[in-house]
Specification:
Aminopeptidase; 12 strands; 31% helix
């Protein structure tokens, strides 16, 4: 599998959140903004994520493949040159700690940028890239049953609801025979280019 590089969509840059950027974010959001050369939207990430940065940095140190992919990507609004959110990719390990053929995704976008399709655009690009990697077969996600916006994002990018638990809905997108299939129908891929 190759390392994740910057992805470019119609309106966004997706910059991998690798160890170097994570260390900058631990110092301060201003340090991260300086390294990226961007402005930062208020509430671009929830406090739970920001507080978890040191733990995530340790994961990136321990698991080289996870660091190559980053803890997903930072979402940069191209026109405004502003950090507006994050799409997480967590490689799911087996019992020995080795990567499996599955990842979990999550996403968050600053409140000012919600309901404009940015979460869908970024998450679709990341799932398309992930499933294009050799050996990757499955992308999963979870959201609260009452989170209508997240459910719409997951439906829009072609994921299927596979399980409804008390506090979480579980979604899945799989690749079958080298192609992505959703509910038996081949899904359309978004146009994404990869840039260093």
């Amino acid at each position: 599998m190759k390392a994740l590089e910057k992805l470019v969509t119609e309106r966004l840059y997706l910059v991998p959140l690798k160890l170097e950027l994570m260390k900058a974010a631990i110092i301060s959001i201003d340090e991260l903004a300086t390294i990226l050369g961007v402005k930062v939207a208020a509430d671009w990430a929830e406090q739970d994520l920001i507080q978890a940065f040191p733990d995530i940095a340790n994961i990136l140190l321990q698991f080289p493949l996870q660091n190559e992919w980053g803890w997903g990507s930072l979402i940069i609004h191209q026109t405004e040159n502003t950090l507006i959110g994050h799409v997480m990719i967590k490689i799911i390990p087996d019992v020995t700690g080795l990567p499996t053929d599955a990842v979990e995704i999550g996403y968050q976008v600053a409140p000012l940028y919600r309901r404009q399709g940015y979460a869908s655009e970024a998450t679709k690009a990341m799932t398309d890239w992930t499933l294009s990697q050799p050996g990757m077969q499955t992308v999963t996600a979870g959201c609260a049953p009452d989170n209508i916006a997240s459910k719409r994002v997951l439906e829009k990018i072609g994921m299927d609801l596979i399980e409804a638990r008390e506090k979480v809905l579980v979604w899945k997108l799989s690749r079958v025979c080298g192609k992505k299939f959703v509910g038996g129908v081949r899904s359309r891929s978004s146009v994404v280019s990869s840039q260093s």
